[in-house]
Design goal:
- The protein is α+β, with helices and mostly antiparallel strands.
- The strands form 19 sheets. It has a 7-stranded mixed β-sheet, with helices on both faces. A 5-stranded mixed β-sheet has the order 3-5-10-7-8, with no helix packed on it. A 5-stranded mixed β-sheet has the order 12-14-19-16-17, with no helix packed on it.
- It starts with a helix and ends with a strand.
- The chain is globular, with a radius of gyration of 40 Å.
- Strand 21 and strand 22 (365-369) form a beta hairpin.
- The protein contains 18 helices and 70 strands.
- Helices cover 18% and strands 34% of the residues.
- It has 7 domains: 1-111, no CATH class; 115-236, Jelly Rolls (Sandwich), CATH 2.60.120; 237-345, Spermadhesin, CUB domain (Jelly Rolls); 394-506, Sandwich (Jelly Rolls); 547-666, Jelly Rolls; 668-784, Spermadhesin, CUB domain (Jelly Rolls, Sandwich); 815-1018, Ribosomal Protein S5, domain 2 (2-Layer Sandwich).
- Helix 5 crosses helix 7, helix 7 crosses helix 8 and helix 12 packs antiparallel against helix 15.
- Its cofactor is Zn(2+).
- Keywords: ATP-binding, Disulfide bond, EGF-like domain, Hydrolase, Kinase, Metal-binding, Metalloprotease, Nucleotide-binding, Protease, Repeat, Signal, Transferase, Zinc.
- Disulfide bonds join 117-144, 231-258.
- GO terms for molecular function: ATP binding; calcium ion binding; galactokinase activity; metalloendopeptidase activity.
- InterPro entries: CUB_dom, EGF, EGF-like_Ca-bd_dom, EGF-type_Asp/Asn_hydroxyl_site, EGF_Ca-bd_CS, Galactokinase, Galactokinase_CS, GalKase_N.
């Protein structure tokens, strides 16, 4: 059904107009002085040679008719009135927008020569007949058409009774014709004439056309047609067919039983693909269900019984026949199902299918497969040796697929090398070039080679996971089986790896090689190793107790980690041991100690056996912990570059002891002193270059009255003009968000010195994934401060306050675990039905209502919105194909697909398509990626659902853009701060042609549940607005929509504000070409808002400016104006109202300030609500009169709400959409009822009020949900 505005526009398209065809005028215009300036021509009467009503009488009820107050200057005065109304008769209402009037329909039928009678039925039953004719009327022919539509899979049974049609030869002139479809060339079911009844005319499809042609209608009465829609029947499908549950897509009826007997041609099978599925759920499908059998006779084999809401897998019969039975009981009706039927041919039965080994039939196609040990060639037909395999030869070589060429993406290979018992496998890598880097602490997240030994207990002992280009040391298996696995993702490919292996006798397997402690194999031999606290005897077999004090410098040579353990571990530790480990690394780095196993004698105070850890170079340093018993301690980090650990055992109970791993940590908190100390860029400084893709922060803390001095002793980082690749950035102060940068350094900076003005400094070291250098050595020390204490206190206070205000927007979007609900269940079902898998994650972005501050965000002023419960909710999965597949939960919207490297947004004069808003957000993320990030792009499978009313001023389009950007960012592993996402989305929405200011995107990301936000721009920042506890906000839809991307009004207002700023700037002798916003103008002039209002009145005229006037004011050319001031979609505008637009902006900015201050300082209660309501009412008046973006239906709601609200205003861009009212709790229902009775019902709305007039409270901003966090 068309919307009200849609019907109005449709009639304009059909060229139907309402005019006077009577001798007396039927309407008059009281005075054109009441008509809005520029609209008077709409009330001129057109001559009859330009317009005709096709012989029909004047139609007051036409949907094309103006309302009494159309284009009224005040919204309520009459601009057009009915006349010629008999005395005592009420004047008719004009201007209805409920639906087409009878006159509208009659004129359309006449204009397009439609049949004079007939209709379309979409009901389960009905009756019809041709019109009764007056016997005294002149003779004329009659043609009627009736169309009946059922859901796919249903049939129509028609009975013709009381037939009295002139009987001509072969029913050639007068007849009733019935066809199996809606087309006049559809299959003929029969042509009838004469007298009698024609029963049981049955369609083979779900459509029927009945045509009545009569040349002698005044002598015969015609017929009576009765039809009934029945479900089930016989279906013969030659290629593709469809069927659905009765009444689909609405809920099916109770107590239904439908049986379809489906056949396809011989040598084919019946294939059933469900497109949607929603039946009542039961574990055994006892209530509502579908039963499927392969075959038509009583011996047909049962295939499946289906119910619930999960879309079933495709079903293929074993023959060319299938019975499908649908049953519903008397309770709980749901949405039903729709299905597609194929005549499926098993290509694998053909001898020429081309598969070398195995052929697998699929729906509509087939695929080839290979036996174990082989894999499919790129030709998808032949088989080749698969990577991996089992090797038992004494020696051999293994390599990655395609070596030495690039290995393929998305590959998984496993090699198993089996040696005889009492033998081991020795593996030596001769080449390694796998996506990653060259450092032992590299986490091989993408591509990797894993090497493990399969132990006798069935468990694996991993030797390592390797990537990058640095070859590992020779690997000796710990059993006779070694497993090597290789995995690659779908992005970067390298040349891979090659390795040789040898099977070597396991000398340690016989009496432990005669070693007292541990035996370790070497290639061709073995050696004995003593455990901690012991040294090897000169006989190279036995172990004797030795020194138990250890000095460990973690980074003299790689690796940067190690393992320590108690004496004799994993055997019981000896009695009366006193051991110490002093672990240190280069200055500027820390030590982390992680216990893997721990079991000491227990005691409440760890008095007997214990481990103690000290944060420094000796047992005199600060103690971090004292441990005993069986509980494994938590990881322990040193504060600076040294850690000291002791172990003590007494002479009684002995346990297994402990083993622990230590390694270095980058950065940390350092205490400066007046002695010089050092910071090294990386733990391997002097032995190797720094690592790529590193992020390291140092916080150097000073003392009161001192500043920190830095000296660059050695410095060698990758050189780049802007230091954007590898760099060290220095910040003056310890606030990670707001400290001032003292510089970003790269290249060679030896001898550079810096002194802070604060009592601390932050150093941030960053590297990219490309070129590396030697690194740096810095010295830091305290020097006496040159900044007064008072200045520090003032600056610190300001920084803390700014940090509190801005903290939320510096954080990434929150990731939460999804709590299943009805919304998620529905989108999951839809997602599974389309993609046959579950989503990987979900994205929610709310709509918003702007409480005050309309049309000023793009002028550089703050606004006060809050997020709504209504939202955009996306379900997303990633794929290895770099392709976007996009579907809408609402099936009336078409799906969309494109390659990710071909994302384009082509604008036309019509409204943008829904998916183009998603493309905006996706395009913004794609264009923000650097070259490294582009390697990890994933394909996207998306289902979009939304509950925000469209074109209602509640930010549905911006929410879709923002949810698209957030879903792409998360899929591509970009963890962007909320501030960056908001700014990016505000910018990329302009791809769709909207010149917004960023409010919608900012509140979408920065919103907090329970409060509104004051959003300010450049820099983007937000402040919580404490709304009165007794304030209720009511949203009311005007039922008039505007798509701001599809019209020029919104962008025209943006340009008018810009031109106002530029003309005033020109008159104030500023560079007008650099002036883009009124807010920039105010800041350049240093005036307050009141002074700006005075300046507007002195600088701009009230009369509109033509384009030539603007060019003259700016003393410029038309081409320069088009380039500097106008946008492509506003360059044809010839008339600009600058005075009114600028006055609104500055006054609205004042109202926002007063609104915010009232909320923050007000004591609550009615006085506060009255002030806030007054500001909202003033805002609407300004939007209506100065900004001219209201609409008569918006104004009507505002008038009706006055009795019940403190204030009401339009919200959003305007020209339709919604209003927001501030209402006391006790008046909410009164206001809703008043709007329903006096606004919505007169427009023909009879239900669904909860979605067009509702209360709202502030909700949270954007969020990512996963099935597990």
């Amino acid at each position: 059904m068309l919307s009200q505005q849609g019907e109005h526009k449709s009639l304009q398209f059909l060229d139907v107009v309402t005019t006077n065809n009577n001798k007396r005028l039927s309407t008059r215009v009281p005075t054109k002085n009441l008509v809005v300036s520029g609209q008077q021509t709409n009330f001129n009467k057109l001559p009859t040679d330009q317009v005709t009503s096709l012989g029909q009488k004047y139609d007051y009820n036409s949907i094309m008719h103006y309302a009494r107050n159309t284009y009224s200057i005040n919204g309520f005065s009459d601009t057009i009135q009915p006349i010629g109304i008999p005395l005592g008769m009420k004047a008719p209402e004009i201007g209805q927008r409920v639906g087409l009037s009878a006159g509208d329909i009659e004129q359309t039928l006449i204009l397009y020569n439609c049949p004079k009678c007939g209709s379309t039925f979409q009901t389960l039953s009905g009756s019809f007949s041709p019109p009764k004719m007056n016997v005294n009327a002149p003779r004329e022919s009659l043609a009627c058409e009736w169309r009946i539509t059922a859901t796919p899979g249903e049939k129509i049974i028609l009975n013709l009774t009381s037939m009295d049609v002139f009987k001509s030869p072969n029913c050639s002139t007068d007849f009733v014709e019935v066809r199996d479809g809606h087309w006049k060339k559809s299959k003929l079911l029969g042509r009838f004439c004469g007298r009698g009844d024609v029963p049981n005319i049955r369609s083979d499809t779900n459509r029927m056309l009945i045509v009545y042609q009569a040349a002698t209608i005044n002598e015969h009465t015609g017929f009576l047609g009765n039809f009934e829609v029945v479900c089930g029947g016989t279906m013969h499908v030659t290629s593709i067919g469809y069927l659905a549950s009765p009444n689909y897509p609405d809920d099916y009826s109770p107590n239904k039983e439908c049986i379809w007997k489906i056949t396809v041609p011989d040598q084919y099978q019946v294939a059933l693909k469900f497109l949607s599925f929603d039946l009542e759920h039961h574990v055994e499908c006892r209530y509502d269900f579908i039963s499927i059998h392969s075959g038509l006779d009583k011996n047909a084999s049962h295939v499946a019984t289906l119910c619930g809401q999960t879309v079933p897998e495709n079903i293929v019969s074993s023959s060319n026949q299938m019975i499908m039975k649908f049953v519903s009981d008397k309770s709980k009706q749901r949405g039903g199902f729709s299905a597609k039927i194929f005549a499926e041919y098993n290509e694998c039965d053909r001898k020429d299918h081309g598969c070398e080994q195995t052929c697998i039939n699929t729906l509509g196609s087939y695929m080839c497969a290979c036996r174990k040990g082989l894999e499919l060639h790129s030709d998808k037909r032949s088989c080749v040796d698969a990577c991996g395999g089992t090797f038992k030869a004494p020696k051999g070589t293994i390599a990655s697929p395609s070596f030495p060429e690039l290995y393929p993406g998305s590959k998984q290979c496993t090699w198993i090398i089996e040696a005889p018992l009492q033998h081991i496998v020795v593996l030596n890598f001769t080449h390694l070039d796998v996506e990653g880097n060259n450092y032992d602490d590299q986490l091989c997240e993408y591509d990797q080679v894993n090497v493990s030994s399969l132990l006798s207990n069935g468990k694996y002992k991993q030797h390592g996971s390797f990537c990058g280009t640095k070859r590992p040391s020779m690997i000796f298996s710990e059993s006779n089986v070694l497993e090597i696995s290789f995995g690659s993702d779908d992005s970067v490919q390298q040349t891979g790896f090659a390795a040789v292996y040898y099977i070597d006798p396991d000398e340690c397997s016989t009496r432990n090689g005669e070693c007292e402690h541990d035996c370790v194999n070497t290639l061709g031999s073995f050696q004995c190793i003593c455990r901690t606290g012991f040294t090897l005897h000169e006989n190279k077999k036995d172990c004797i107790e030795g020194d138990c004090v250890h000095e460990i410098f973690t980074v003299s040579t790689p690796p940067m980690y190690g393992i320590i353990s108690s004496p004799n571990y994993p055997k019981y530790y000896p009695a009366s041991k006193d051991c110490a480990w002093h672990i240190r690394t280069l200055p500027g780095h820390r030590i982390r100690l992680i216990f893997m196993n721990f079991n000491l004698e227990s005691h409440p105070e760890c008095y007997f056996d214990n481990v103690q850890i000290f944060d420094g170079d000796s047992s005199k340093s600060h103690q971090k912990g004292r441990y005993c018993g069986p509980r494994v301690p938590l990881p322990i980090d040193s504060t600076e570059n040294q850690l000291y650990m002791t172990f003590k055992s007494d002479n009684n109970v002995h346990k297994k002891g402990f083993s622990a791993t230590y390694y270095t940590l980058c950065g940390g908190i350092l205490q400066a002193s007046q002695e010089k100390r050092q910071i090294y860029s990386h733990p391997l400084y002097g032995n190797a270059s720094y690592a790529s893709m590193k992020s390291c922060d140092w916080f150097v803390i000073g003392n009161d009255g001192f500043n920190v001095k830095l000296s660059f002793k050695e410095f060698d980082l990758e050189l780049e003009e802007d230091c954007s690749y590898d760099y060290l950035e220095v910040f003056d102060g310890l606030d990670s968000q707001d400290s001032r940068s003292l510089g970003r350094f790269c290249g060679n900076q030896t001898s550079t010195e810096l002194t802070t003005t604060e009592e601390g400094v932050i150093l941030k070291f960053r590297t990219d994934d490309r070129i590396v250098g030697r690194g740096f050595i810095l010295e830091y020390e305290l020097v006496e401060s040159i900044v007064s204490l008072e200045e520090k206190v003032l600056k610190s206070t300001a920084n803390i306050e700014a940090h509190i205000h801005d903290h939320i927007q510096k954080m990434p979007v929150e990731i939460r675990k999804l709590s299943p609900n009805e919304k998620s269940d529905k989108i999951n079902a839809a997602f599974f039905g389309i993609y046959k898998k579950v989503p990987e994650f979900y994205v929610r972005v709310p709509g918003r209502v702007n409480l005050i501050g309309e049309h000023i965000d793009y002028c550089g002023y703050g606004v006060c919105p809050m997020a709504l419960e209504q939202d955009m909710f996306l379900a997303v999965a990633t794929t290895n194909e770099k392709r976007l597949i996009l579907h809408n939960f609402d099936q009336k919207y078409e799906g969309f697909e494109c390659e990710l490297d071909e994302v384009k947004i082509t604008l036309t004069d019509s409204a943008p398509r829904w998916y183009q808003y998603y493309l905006c957000g996706l395009k913004g993320i794609l264009e923000s990626l650097n070259e490294s990030q582009k390697n990890h792009i994933k394909g996207l499978q998306v289902v979009v659902s939304g509950t925000i009313p469209q074109s209602a001023g509640l930010s549905s389009s911006s929410a879709l853009v923002s949810s698209a950007a957030l879903s792409a960012a998360h899929a591509f592993k970009l963890s962007l701060p909320k501030e960056e996402l908001a700014n990016l989305c505000a910018a990329c929405e302009r791809y769709i042609g909207t010149q917004g200011g960023g409010m919608d995107q900012a509140i979408a990301y920065l919103a907090k549940e329970g409060c509104a936000k004051l959003i300010e721009f450049e820099p983007l920042r937000s402040t919580e607005v404490k709304l009165p506890s007794d304030a209720v906000f009511v949203i009311a839809h005007s039922l008039t929509n505007l798509n701001k991307a599809a019209t020029g009004d919104f962008n025209c207002r943006v340009v008018e504000c810009r031109l106002a700023a530029q003309i005033i700037a020109k008159k104030q002798e500023l560079d007008w070409r650099k002036m883009k916003r009124l807010g920039d103008l105010q800041r350049a002039l240093g005036l307050n808002l009141d002074e700006m209002i005075v300046l507007v009145k002195a600088s701009l005229r009230e009369m509109p400016y033509s384009k030539d006037d603007v060019i003259q004011e700016l003393n410029t050319t038309s081409s320069l104006l088009d380039t500097v001031s106008l946008t492509p979609n506003t360059r044809d505008i010839q008339r600009f109202k600058l005075y009114q637009r600028a006055l609104h902006v500055f006054n609205e900015a004042k109202r926002v300030e007063e609104f915010f201050n009232t909320c923050q300082t007000g004591s609550g209660g009615e006085a506060t609500l009255i002030t806030l309501g007054r500001l909202m009412s003033e805002s609407h008046q300004s939007l209506r009169d100065l900004y001219e973006c209201s609409h008569p239906q918006l104004d009507r709601i505002v008038d009706l709400a006055k009795e019940f609200s403190f204030g009401t205003r339009l919200t959003g861009a305007g020209w339709g959409g919604c209003t927001v009212s501030l209402v006391a709790p006790q008046n909410v229902e009164k206001m809703r009822n008043a709007l329903i009775q006096n606004f919505y019902k007169p427009l023909g709305v009879t239900d669904g009020f909860e979605s067009i007039v509702f209360t709202t409270a502030p909700k949270a901003g954007a969020c990512i949900y996963t099935n597990s966090v």
